[in-house]
Amino acid sequence: MRGCARSISDDAAEGVPWIERGVADYRAGGAHVGLLLWLPLQAEAFHLVDRTSDALEAIREAQGLAEKFEVRFWSAELHRLRGVFLAALGSNESQIEAAFQVAIRIAKEQKSVSLEESSEATYAEYRRQKASGSGGCGIRLRLC
Question: What CATH number does domain 2-132 carry, 1.25.40.10, 3.20.20.140, 3.40.50.720, 3.40.50.10330?
Answer without folding.
Answer: 1.25.40.10
